[in-house]
């Protein structure tokens, strides 16, 4: 997945950890990714170090939506920190341990998806997402996450794709449901954020389930 991929309407689009990494801010954040107006004019592309200024401007627009759930935006507060975050994911990609992609809508960066964890040897990975308000209500995260799962299962042979979200982040959980994932369980009060402990729901889809669902 090195080139731009259209996120236009999918025939099967009936169908957020809150996006970003808990250690570096990634997880599943945002309020709305329900179906709606569709993904015309949307593209999924790798987020690279040279996108730092564009990424920072996007994070400034997304903070109010992302911050209640995960510290992703707090790791990109100026040009240097934005570049450092993108550099960490460039290193992950080089080491085949993670990847970061942006969602552009009509040429503007409005959100993204990522492999927070990518363990090729074990066949396990975890995806996450985030959005700014301009990207809501179009199903962009669902479409983008589907592209990542397709690539992980069909191209890389991954066996298990995981999704985690705090139990109160109902919109992120709704994306997991739309992706056809199953709820594995709840990690009680495992996530400490802003001085409060939160339950995390663990959702997943296995490769045989994904292949059968998309056959």
Features:
215 residues; alpha+beta; 8-stranded mixed sheet; 5 helices; 32% strand; globular
Low-confidence sequence ranges? 11-24
| SS class | alpha+beta
Got a strand count?
Answer: 10
Major sheet strand order: 1-4-5-6-7-8-10-9
> What count of helical segments does DSSP give?
5
What is the end-to-end distance?
A: 21 Å
Element order: H for helix, E for strand: EEEEHHEEEHEHEEH
Radius of gyration: 16 Å
**What percentage of residues falls in helices of 4 or more residues?**
25-40%
Strand content: 25-35%
**Overall average pLDDT:** 86
Describe the structure in your own words.
The chain is an alpha+beta fold and 215 residues long. 29% of the residues lie in helices and 32% in strands. It is built from five helices and ten strands; from the N terminus they run E-E-E-E-H-H-E-E-E-H-E-H-E-E-H. The chain has helices spanning 52-66, 79-94, 140-155, 170-178, 207-213; strands spanning 5-6, 19-20, 26-27, 42-46, 99-105, 108-119, 124-131, 160-166, 182-193, 196-206. The strands form two sheets. The chain has an eight-stranded mixed β-sheet with strand order 1-4-5-6-7-8-10-9, with helices on both faces. A hairpin with a 2-residue loop joins strand 9 and strand 10. Helix 1 (52-66) crosses helix 2. The radius of gyration is 16 Å and the shape is globular.
């Amino acid at each position: 997945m090195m080139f731009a991929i259209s996120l236009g309407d999918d025939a099967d689009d009936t169908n957020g950890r809150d996006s970003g990494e808990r250690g570096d801010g990634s997880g599943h954040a945002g309020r709305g990714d329900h179906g709606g107006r569709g993904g015309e004019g949307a593209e999924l592309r790798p987020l690279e170090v040279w996108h730092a200024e564009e990424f920072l401007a996007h994070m400034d627009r997304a903070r109010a939506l992302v911050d209640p759930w995960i510290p992703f935006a707090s790791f990109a507060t100026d040009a240097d920190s934005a570049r450092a975050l993108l550099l960490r994911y460039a290193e992950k990609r080089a080491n085949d341990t993670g990847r970061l992609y942006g969602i552009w809508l009509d040429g503007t960066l409005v959100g993204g998806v990522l492999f927070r964890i990518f363990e090729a040897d074990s066949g396990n990975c975890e995806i996450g997402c985030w959005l700014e308000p301009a990207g809501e209500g179009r199903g962009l995260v669902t479409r983008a996450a589907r592209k990542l799962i397709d690539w992980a299962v069909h191209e890389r042979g991954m066996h298990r794709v995981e999704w985690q979200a705090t139990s109160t982040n109902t919109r992120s959980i709704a994306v997991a449901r739309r992706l056809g994932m199953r709820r594995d369980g709840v990690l009680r009060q495992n996530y400490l954020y802003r001085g409060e402990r939160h339950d995390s729901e663990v959702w997943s889809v296995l490769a045989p389930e994904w292949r059968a669902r998309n056959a």
